[in-house]
Amino acid sequence: MIEGARWRRWIFFNLPLTLFVIGLLFPFYWMVVTTVRPDAELYRPWMAPNYTPFWTLHPTLDHIRYLLDETLFSRWMLNTFFISVLATAISLFCGLLAGYALSRLKFPFAGSLGTGIFITYLVPQTLLFIPLADVIRNFRLGDTPWALILTYPTFLIPFCTWLLMGYFKAIPRELEECARIDGATRWQAMVYIVFPVAVPGILSAGIFAFTLSWNEFIYALVFLSSPEQKTVSVGITSELVRGDVFYWGSLMAGALLGSVPVALIYSFFVEYYVAGITGSVKG
Amino acid sequence: MVVDSVAAVKSAKSYVAAPRRGPVTRILENEGWFAFFLLLPTAVLLGLFMAYPFIEGVLLALSDAKVGVPGNFVGLQNFAVLLNDSIFRIAVWNTVLYTAVTTVFKLALGLWLALLLNRHFRGKAVTRAFVLLPFIIPTVLSTFAWKWMFDPTFSVINWTLFHLGIIRTRINWLSDPGLALVSVIIVNIWRGVPFYAISLLAGLQTINPELAEAAAIDGARPWQRFRYITWPLLLPVTMVVVLFSVIQTFADFQLVYVLTGGGPANATQLFATYAYQIGVGTGLLGQGAAISLAMFPVLLVVVVVQLLYIRRVEIH
Amino acid sequence: MARISRRKLLKLSGGGAVAARTGGIASILALKQAPAYAQGTTVHWLRWNDFVPASDQVLRNAIIPDCAKALGIKLNIEMINGNDIQARTTSAIQSGTGPDVICALNNWPQLYPESVVDVSDVADEIGKAQGGFYEESRVVANDGKKWIAVPWCVLGAQLAYRKSWFAEIGYDAPKFPQTWEEYREAGKKLKAKGRPLGQAVSHSFGDPPTYAYPYLWSWGGKEVEADGKTVVLNSKATVDSVNFAVGFWKDAYDDGGLAWDDSSNNRAFLAGTISSTLNGASIYIEAKRKPEVYLTETGTPLWKDILHAPLPKGVAGQFGYHLPMSNMLMKYVKDPKAGKEFLRWITSKPVYQTWFDSQQGYSVGATTIWEQDKLWEKDPVMLPFRTAARAGRFPGYAGPADRHAAEVLSKYIVVDMTAKAIQGMPVQDAVKWAHDEVAGIHAA
Questions:
Q1: Which of B153, B171, B188, C60 sits at a 20 to 30 Å CA gap from C359?
Q2: Residue C353 domain boundaries
Q3: What is the pLDDT of residue A1?
C-alpha cells in the first residue's frame, strides 16, 4: 500500500498503471477497431481529413463473418488448443520432476546435467527445423498434431525446468525436512509439500509454456500440411495474406478471436494463483 | 523402518505415509536413483527430439551441404567465410544491440509493472490477465497489426503525434535505417514486458508480506524495503527470466521476418533472419547452419556470466 | 499407402497410362473415361495462395473434380503464403517426404536441381503445343540440358498509374513518359502536388527486385558476363544508374518506400497517396472488384482512373522482370508417373484455360500462345500485360539464372545497392559494396 496523501497514490500508482495499460493494450484496441472497420475506411491515409483512427461510424461484422465462414478458423483454434494443452502438460510434468531433481537433490553431475538441459534451449529453431523434419518422418508423425505436441516440449522443457528451479530454490528446506522426519517418502515430500508451495511458479511456467506453444510458427508451418490440421497463426497467414493483398479486417479478427479466450482463461488462473499462494506461504 | 512406524502413528493430514515400503519406494529413497527417475522423462524426450537434430545441425555447419545435396566436410570454412561477410557483421551488431536494449527496458518496465500489479485495487484480476495480451496474441499476427500501425501511409502513430503537435511531417518508422531498428525494438519490448511482469509478479507473490511489514514497522522507507528485502528475494527468479528472455531475443525470428524482412538494406537483419535467408532462401544449408551456430559462442558467454552470477547470489 | 496402391495399379492399368503418354490430353479426353488410376491415387500440390481468390475457387471447385474425372487422381491442393513455400520445400527435400508437386516462384527450381524429376518430356510437349515458352520461364525452369520444372505462369509487372493525374501534367492517355528522364520530370511535378510515385526498395521478394533489376539493365548495368563468372557490376553504367536513382528518389518518390513490402504500394495506391507504381495487375483488379470501396478524391470509382504502362526506357533498352512460376515434381516421390500425368494435364490448354480465365490477366501464361487469348479483348486497360513477358529477363543476367543469381537475389544486394545510396552512402561506395558482395557469392 502506498502510504500518505491521495495524490501520492495517483502519481505513484494510478498514473503509471494507466499508462502501462494504455501502452500495452493500444495495439490490441487497434485490432478491435480494424476488425469492425469497413474496407472503404481501411484505405484512408492518415493525412486524410476524414481519417478516424480510434473509432468507426460504420462498424461491420463482415470481416469476422468472412473469417468464420470462409476459413477453417474454428478448426484451427481447436487444433491449437489441443496441441498447446498437451504440449504444456508434457512439458510441465517433465519440467517439474527435472526442476525438483536439479534444484533440491544431490547427485553426481547435477550441475552439468542442468547446464546440458539448458544448452538445448540455446539451439535456434531456425537451425533445428530442417533436421527435425527427418525425425518427424521417421516416427511417421508428419501432418499429425503429435508432430507438434512432441516437438514443442524440446524448447518448453528447458524453460519450465529452469523457471521451476528458481521457484523451488526459494522454498525453505526446513519445510521438506520436517515432512521427511515425519516419515514422508521423498516422493511424498516432493508431491505433497514442495509442489503445493510452488503452485504460483507452476502456473506461471504453465502459462508461458502454453503461450509459447500457442505462438509457435515455424514447426507448425513445416510439419503440418492439411488445412484442417493447421494452427491459428499458420492457418491465418496462409488464408488471409494473399500475394500482395492482405485481408486486414479478417486478419485482425483472427488475432483477436485467437487470443481473447486465452486471456479469459488466464484471468481465472492468475487470480487463482494469487489467492493460492498467500495461504500456502502462511500455512 | 522405525521412522516408518512413527510416521504411521503421526500420519499427517496432507500426506499418508505408505503402510509398507516396497522395493520401488526403497530405490526412490536413494537420492541418486530418485534424481535419475525424475530426470528420465526429460532425458527421453530431449534425446529423441533434440539430440539428433542438434548433432545433425552441427555437422551441417561443418559441411558445404545445399538443399538436396549432402555435401562434404569442410571444417570451419563456413565460419571463415562469415568473418569476411559484411552482412553477417551487421547482423551480429544488430542482434547484440537489439538484445541489450530490449532486455534493459523489458526488465525495468516489467519489474515496475509487477510491483504495481502486486497491489490491491479494483479490477485487479482482469487487469492482470489483459496486460498479458501482447504476449498471448500470436507474434505473427500482432506483428501484422504493428506493421499496419507503422505503415507510412496509414500510421495511426504519426496521426497521433501530428495532432499532438509533436511532429510536422510524417515519420518513416520502418524506412529509416535507424528508426527501423528502433521500431523493431519497440515491438519486442511491447511483447516482452508482460512476460517479465507476470513472472516477477509470481516471484513477488512468494515473498512473505510479513517481512516487508516488519521492515515497515522498523521504519524502512519504501525504496529501502524494495532494495534490501524484495529485490534480493526476487533475484533468483529475475535472473532466470532474464536468462530466457535474452536467449529468446537473441534468436528472435518471427518479429523481424514479418515486420521488415531484415531491411531496409539489412538495417534490421538479425542472426536468425540472416540464417534463414541463407539456409532456406538460398538453399545454402551449411552456410545457414553456420550462421545459426555462430550465435552459440556469443550466447554462451552471456549465459555463463549469468549462471555464475546466479550461483554467487545463491551462495550469499 | 496411397503410393503403394498407385504403383500396383499402374502396372495393372497399362492401357490408360500408355494412352496418356502417347496422346496426351487429347487421348484422355477421347477415352471419355478415367484412366484406371487407383481410387486412392493422390497428388499433393503445394502452391501459393493466389492473389485472385476466384482462381483458388476454380482450383478447388472445378480443377479437383475434373482431375478425378480425367485422370482418376485425387488432387490435394495446399495453398500457403508465398513467403513460406521455401521453408516447406527445404524441409520436404531434406526429410524426403512432402508434397508431390511444388509450385515454385522465381528461379527456385535452380536451387533444387538435384531434388527434382527431369520433366523434359512434359515441358517439351507443352512448349511445342503452345508456341514455346518465354525466355524468362525457360531460364528458371531449364538447367541448360533438361527441364527441371514445368513453367506454369508469368506474373506480369507493369506501372499502374492514375490517368487523370498524369493528364494534369500533360500526359493525356495513352501518352506516358517513355524514358527515365521523362518519368523523373513527371514524377517531380506530381510529387510537388503531393502525389509522388511509389516504389518499394526493401526486403520483399516481389516488387523491389522486379523494379531494381530492369532499372539496372536499362542503363546497361549487369551482374556478370555471359560466362556466369566474371562479375562486372561495378561499371560506369551501374554507377550512372545509381546516381540517377538517388536524385530520382528525392525528386519523385514517396520516401516511405524503403520499408514497403509487396502489399504497401497496393495500399498506398488504393488510398490515393501515390500516382504510379510498379506492380502486378492486383491493384487494378482489386479496385475493380470493389468499386464502392476504392474511390478517387472526387468520389468516382478508382478503377476507371487506372492505366498500365511498361517501365521506361534507358540507354540500353527497355526491360522487365516478371515473376515466373513453375511446377517442380519432387524426386522423393516414389512413383513420379502420376505426378507427370497431372502436370501434363493441368498445363494442357483446355485445363489451363479455366484457370487462366479466372486470373483476368494477373498471370500472363508461360507460353506465347496466351498472348492471342480472347481474354485480352475484354479489357483494354489490361492490354499492356499481354506481351509484357517478351521483354522479360531474369536476375543473374547475363549469366545463367543459377544458384549464385538466386543468392544475390535473396540477399537483396542489387536492391540494397540503391537503398544504401538513397540513404546517403556515396554512390561509388554503394556500387563497390554490391560488386564485392556479388563477387564473393560467385567465388564460392
A1: B153
A2: 2-156+322-386
A3: 47
